[in-house]
Specification:
The protein has helices spanning 40-54, 57-66, 69-89, 92-105, 116-128, 133-140, 146-156; strands spanning 172-173, 180-181. The chain is mostly helical and 182 residues long. It has one domain (21-181). Helix 3 (69-89) runs antiparallel to helix 4 (92-105) and helix 4 crosses helix 6. Residues 1-25 are annotated as: Disordered.
């Protein structure tokens, strides 16, 4: 699914995200990183991220403003999950969704370092798919707050060894259709 933007209020009225970020507060997201891929929770986060991208700028900002630390953590975990899913599917668009989720989460995380894990996974996945994290950041930058884009670019500008899976204590498990960043 492409990440094109189309104005939509989803029947919720002006200023409200079509799929509210409050859906990410659901207690069923506890342990989300450990759920098998794909999982029904991924479709919930997909809907939030896709509706965020399709929304107008003020609506996207309201979604970010409405995001709490729990929802931000869910988005961050989703970013790491989408790195695995992207490699499995050979889909750069899946990487873009994961990167948007990480960017949405950036300012709302209790500790912004939580995003280092999914960013390392997204970076590795991009290289496996013949893409670059730098180009993906540029592609999604119009959808994200400036501060988030700056943080994403700062990660990308690190030395290769400082943004590697090993540097973040991550590794690839399996390969192809079973690849998982853990």
């Amino acid at each position: 699914m492409a990440l094109s933007r189309r104005p939509s209020d989803g029947g919720r009225g002006p200023g409200a995200p079509p799929v509210p970020v409050s859906r990410l507060k659901d207690g069923r997201f506890h342990g989300y990183l450990r759920h098998p891929l794909p999982h029904e929770r991924d479709t919930i986060v997909d809907a939030v991220v896709i509706s965020y991208v399709k929304a107008a700028g003020p609506v996207r900002q309201r979604a970010i403003d409405d995001l709490d630390t729990r929802g931000a953590s869910v988005l961050s975990v989703y970013g790491q999950r989408m790195a695995s899913a992207a490699v499995r599917a050979g889909s750069v668009d899946t990487l873009r969704r994961g990167l948007v989720a990480v960017g949405m989460a950036q300012a709302r995380l209790r500790d912004a370092r939580e995003n280092l894990y999914p960013l390392a996974a997204l970076h590795d996945a991009a290289s496996l798919l013949g893409a670059s994290l730098r180009n993906l950041i540029t592609e999604v930058s119009d959808s994200l707050p400036t501060s988030a884009v700056e943080e994403l670019r700062a990660f990308d500008q690190r030395q290769e060894q400082d943004k590697s899976l090993a540097a973040m204590g991550l590794r690839r498990l399996g390969g192809g259709q079973t690849l998982l960043y853990s």
